[in-house]
Known about the structure:
Blueprint: H1 4-8, E1 11-15, H2 22-35, E2 39-42, E3 56-61, H3 70-82, E4 87-91, H4 94-99, H5 102-115, E5 121-125, H6 133-145, E6 150-152, H7 165-175, E7 180-184, H8 190-199, E8 203-206, H9 209-214
Parallel strand pairs: 1-2, 1-8, 2-3, 3-4, 4-5, 5-6, 6-7, 7-8
Amino acid sequence: MITREELAAMVDHTLLKPESTADQVAELAREAGELGTYSICVSPSRLDVDLPEGVKLATVCGFPSGAHPAQVKAAEAAVSVANGADEVDMVINLGLAVAGAWDGVRDDIEAVRAACPAPAVLKVIIESAALTDDQIVAACREAEAAGADFVKTSTGFHPAGGASVEAVRLMAETVGGRLGVKASGGIRTTEAALAMIDAGATRLGLSGTRAVLEGLDS
């Protein structure tokens, strides 16, 4: 059984509400240190935050629609890394994915990858609930080909829904351990978090981190 500390170390402690204030982000960072999470994930305009020792700083790019021009996403990613982000979670161009324009999907990801080269970590949000299984597989393959470090299920803002065990399992099978798999969107209970890990998730995006971790206390 995974321990509370091990689960916390897989969590991007997340606050991406547009109305979030600097004070709320500061409290998020303080709580991340208390809980022992891997990182905090905040909006690009909220990167000016004091972090506890050992906590990474993640942000988003092309969020939440993914419909921005590739040049805009690349510029956003570059600014975020310059402002201290260790990790960037970008949203793919869903319209291109649904249309089967996979070269365009790859070009989009490559542009962001070039703008935030290693050691910055690039996670690619494929919005799995809005895609078919075949599209999920193709999106993961393009993310890998474009040099991403992770594939990620969801923004948590799409009306189609967030992470599902089935999508995580399919994504994990597709990337075969060569990339990380982040499950995010609608994971609110300990049971749901553990199910995502069992399906192959190596990172979790949680906003209600404390409640999820408390389920492992007993």
